[in-house]
Amino acid sequence: MKPLLLAFALCAAPLSAQQCTTPDTVFYNGNILTGVGLQPRDQRDAPQRVEALSSANGKILLTGTNATVRHCADPKTTKLVDLHGAFVLPGFNDAHTHIAGAGQQKLSVDLDNIPSLAAMQDKIKTYAATLAPGQWIQGGGWDHTKWASHSLPTAHDLDLVTGDHPAYLERTDGHIAVVNTAALRAAGITGKTLAPQGSSIDVDDDGNPTGILREDAARALVTAHIPKPDAATRRRALQLSIDDALTHGVTSVQDFSDWDDFLVLEQMERDHALHLRVSEWLTFNDSLDTLKAERAHHNLNDPLLKTAMLKGFMDGSLGSRTAALAAPYADDPTNSGLPRYDQTKLTQMAADRADAGLQLGFHAIGDNANTIALDAFRIAEFSQALGKCYSAHTGPFPRKPPTPCENELLTRDRFRIEHAQVLLPADFDRFHQLHIIASMQPSHLLTDMAWAEQRLGPERSNYAYAWKSFLDHGVTLAFGTDYPVESISPFRGLYSAVTRSNEADTQTFHPEQRLTIHQAIYAYTQASAFAQFEEKRKGILAPGYLADFVVLDHDLTTSTPQQILHTQVLRTVLNGETVYLAP
Questions:
Q1: Residue 382 pLDDT more than 80?
Q2: In this structure, are residues 260 and 273 in contact, taking their beta carbons and an 8 Å threshold?
Q3: Which fold has domain 99-223?
Q4: pLDDT tens per residue, range 508-546
Q5: What is the CATH number of domain 1-91+539-583?
Q6: Residue 246 — left, alpha, or beta (φ > 0 → left; ψ -120 to 50 → alpha)?
Q7: Is the pTM of this model over 0.85?
Q8: Which segments of 66-180 are extended strands (E)?
């Protein structure tokens, strides 16, 4: 599954009147990186640059010189936009977001970047004073690894400031939560409560729950008792996230939010109020009947809103020490994380869903979780191949080299692993052999490098956040942010990809895994479009493609790392229309 390489010829001279199609809008005097000629690996030739582009009906009509493009404008052209030499590139396509959760966090107790437990308590106390008696306190974003104590908060810590309100507050990674005593009581959780498979409930030395719930199944014991937001609240939350995305030059997101949030997005589209392209993932664990009904609910060819792959969770996160590792954590030798699935059950579910024609994407962070995911994908593909490629085969799949039939099958499905943060060395080859997309979030490293080697030890760290190793093995690498775990800003991710240094530039993590700026841009545009089967209509600026692009305050390809990190968006364009303009 090699990323698509495209070449387009530009007009060398102005077109005749008979050849012109009248544009709605012309953007000129720009420094436009179209994406044509951009390479995922060795960039031997400079990618294409043009001065101007035009659009009509939401698509690119023409790119080229100012004279070539402006020649086709006539009195019916409604807008001529002078870019004043600004740098332009295709709109960023964030391959991994949770926009509903991000918006809900903004509407509740937003604990992102809170520097200490005391500061967290102060913010919760202030918020609690605004609520009706007994109303739930919700929120998230706290990260104890950024506190001097490095200690997890407890139910007792919350009890001091929450009064009679039950409280549920997720860690920034969304894999553990801290709840207060009122919430534990509402859920009936005691020291004798058994955690469901793939999760855990922390207890203290006396066997009492501390308030820390690890992974979905344990957290669901509490969240089942929290009232769900109504449609109006969901819409406010989604709009906050959409505005945030557009401000940062993101024109497409591949998202995992609730089905009720998708229904709200549908209404926004009907109201002509949806100004971000959303591919909404469905829940892998849901029944096939439910998944088929949800897939049939909305037009799959809608370029603005659609349902997409199935999202399944193999494990948790490194920050929460719930990522499933093949050997114990270096800083917690009694713990190897929390695998979510029995391999046999997972493999059967994957095969059933693949046979139904559904794209699969598995969250896998630890090396053991990635191995589990790859094993399931291999068998799921093998199940299809038995019927489609040959009648009987007892050897390994795929064959080495794969048969043409196997290659076609593997390329078509485009299975994905989300995060792929830590791998066993042999599994890089398996990604390549099975044509699995590595959907990664380079901005995670900005946070994680402060403690990643402590969790993993020096040997495993060689195979962590290994973006260049994936490219060197011929794997498609798509980039996103995992918003709101990290800011939706793609510039933090680009900075991380080209430096592998923290934002203060005081620490670097395995610099041999750095990418070039061209490789990083490719992963945020063309590769992320490929990962969602849309490489033929987004990711580059060429005739017939969607007119989605971003105008920046400087050229990313000639900028210093700090300039990349602090890039400002001047204009975001979707369907040829400006949807964000810097004040």
A1: no
A2: no
A3: Diaminopimelate Epimerase; Chain A, domain 1 (3.10.310)
A4: 999 999 999 999 999 999 999 999 999 999 999 999 999
A5: 2.30.40.10
A6: alpha
A7: yes
A8: 79-82, 87-90, 92-97, 109-110, 137-142, 167-171, 176-179
